[in-house]
Design brief:
Keywords: Cell membrane, Membrane, Transmembrane, Transmembrane helix
Subcellular location: Cell membrane; Membrane
Radius of gyration: 17 Å
Protein name: Probable membrane transporter protein
InterPro entries: TM_pro_TauE-like, TSUP/Inactive_protease-like
Distance between the termini: 31 Å
Number of strands: 0
Membrane topology: Multi-pass membrane protein
Helix content: over 70%
């Protein structure tokens, strides 16, 4: 019972962060899922693959619930979301097929990749926290820049299970000087589309090692469903909360949680 309660709480926190920051809930899911999979007996050689696949599933629901709330408030940008999503799906599926779902991508490699990306994200977050008032939105978006953003976001999502928002938001806010709240809304829309595509891909994959637990590809619904239920409850609240809290405060809270994840992954490597 405690096992499922922990997963449910992870879903609550992941959904809240998704709505609050626009990065999906993967930041929480990749923290808790490796522990859950080792606990239920998933072979350590494939913990990374199961973590990424199920984190993306939870991230899909967290981002989708938050996006629905934005649509209801007429905060939706389909053109930008579509352009970024197309390239994001392409790069994400290719990275999953040729890098992640292979014997090369071990738990140790996964942790190193997550640490590197987290450190870069931390530096970007702290820098942006000081510059939020300087962002001025441009009227014309650059399609090539959107495509490059999507390629980068999809690759990061596939390698880490984080969803891609950690790439999309800095790229849009710094590269196009887009207002940060709009960048978060676009990020959630892209994460919803991209993570769904990668989840469907993982559903039809064949794990390298057999496991005793029921599964479909790399998805284990017994683990992911409690997380999904948690996101359903908290994602909308996260969106509402983001409208009341200063962006700089959100950035510092996010940075604090990133530090916790980095510390945990460093301990696992040691």
């Amino acid at each position: 019972m405690e096992f499922y309660l922990l997963l449910f709480c992870a879903g609550l926190l992941g959904g809240l962060i998704s709505g609050l920051l626009g990065v999906g809930g993967g930041l929480v899911f990749i923290f808790i899922l490796p522990i859950a999979f080792l606990y239920i007996g998933i072979p350590e050689q494939e913990v990374a693959q199961y973590t990424i696949a199920n984190s993306l599933l939870g991230t899909f629901f967290a981002a989708s619930f938050a996006t629905i709330n934005h649509i209801r408030n007429k905060e939706f940008y389909p053109k930008a979301i579509l352009i970024i999503s197309i390239s994001s799906i392409l790069s994400g599926v290719l990275v999953l097929n040729f890098i992640v779902n292979t014997p090369f991508y071990s738990k140790e490699v996964f942790n190193v990749v997550v640490i590197i990306i987290m450190v870069l994200m931390l530096l970007s977050t702290l820098r942006n926290a000081q510059k939020q008032k300087l962002f001025v939105e441009r009227v014309k978006f650059v399609k090539r820049f959107f495509s490059f953003t999507g390629l980068s976001a999809g690759s990061v999502a596939a390698l880490t299970g984080l969803g891609g928002g950690i790439i999309i938001i800095p790229f849009l806010s710094e590269g196009l000087k887009m207002e940060i709240r709009k960048a978060k809304t676009i990020s959630l829309g892209v994460i919803s589309v991209t993570s769904l595509a990668m989840v469907l891909f993982n559903l039809f994959q064949t794990p390298m090692l057999p496991i005793d637990m029921p599964h479909t590809g790399y998805i284990i619904f017994q683990v992911s469903i409690p997380i999904i239920v948690g996101t359903l409850i908290s994602a909308t609240f996260g969106v509402k909360l983001s409208r009341r809290i200063p962006v700089s405060t959100i950035s510092y809270l996010f940075a604090a949680f990133v530090l916790i994840v980095i510390f945990k992954k460093l301990i696992e490597l040691i």
